[in-house]
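Input set for joint prediction.
Command: fold jointly, output tokens.
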Amino acid sequence: MRQAGRSLPEYRKVREGTTMLEACTRPDLVAEITMQPVRRYGVDAAILFSDIVLPLKAIGFDLDIVPGVGPVVADPVRRHEQVDAMGELTPADVPYITEAIGLLTAELAATPLIGFAGAPFTLASYLVEGGPSKNHENTKALMYSDENLWHALMAKLTDISAAYLHVQVAAGASAIQLFDSWVGALSAVDYVRYVMPHSQRLLSSLAETGVPRIHFGVNTGELLPLMRDAGADVVGVDYRLALADAAKRVGDSVVLQGNLDPAVIFSSPSAVRTQVDAVLDSARDLPGHIFNLGHGVLPTSDPEVLAAVVRQVHERTAR
Ligand code: CP3
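tokens >
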């Protein structure tokens, strides 16, 4: 998950003197940083070190990832000419991704590598707001006021993310995750009208690859059945909804991923154990479950606590 490696001293060391986006374009660094949490924790899968806005940078957007802030876009996208000017992404725009995944599949051997991309709504939010946003007011204003422009923007972002995911699968990623982190800001009715057709087209374009598709968002309890119907094999659940309750909403045709509250990592050792047990208890009767922290590892998390969580999950789920 986002920032899983960021809490590690070895991450801070290799990142010294390199910006986030530079690091994402250096195959040696991408491979090294992706491997760090795998080596330290022995987790069951690796997630590619990159960022959801990288493909937008790769096709020419003037944007940066500002430490402690997130993605910031120089010229927010709000006009037809800007959307018309958006190009497509080809494998030649991201050669370092193909190279990094080549290095990683060799080093990971049997450990799966999860590739990822931003879903069109979450990418649109960064582009339209110009940066992180609490209320997504500019994004919603565009969506409600100019539906044609909205769908044109979403269609372009769908093509970019689909192409980016296809590059990752072709290079050897064994699963993909679509991050619609901020889509929980929408009602189900708006999700169906403004987002779902695009996410559905994106996910169904990946179906032919045969790799499992994970669909994740924050605060999406009310949207889970729709996110399943958009074409996911795995649906991510944040800590707000117990996994057993999420399963009642989505049925047993999909696997659930989740859902330890990332803030739990700051609790006492016995409290952490209790909370991890609660997640695993809630997942006991699921047809499939991927344990993780709801929306990623907080940067000041203690690596020792994370190591203990991985050990506990492995002990309880060993066959
Ligand atoms: O463990 C990993 O590092 C996996 C790679 C990864 C990153 N970003 C690296 C990163 C992944 C999967 C992401 C996805 C991502 N990026 C999402 C979706 C996941 C989620 O959290 O819902 C979103 C919304 C972003 C946009 C973004 N990029 C944010 C909000 C931030 C944090 C800003 C901050 O500093 O608080 C980033 C920066 C970022 N992406 C960092 C990393 C390791 C921190 C970079 C640094 O300063 O060292």
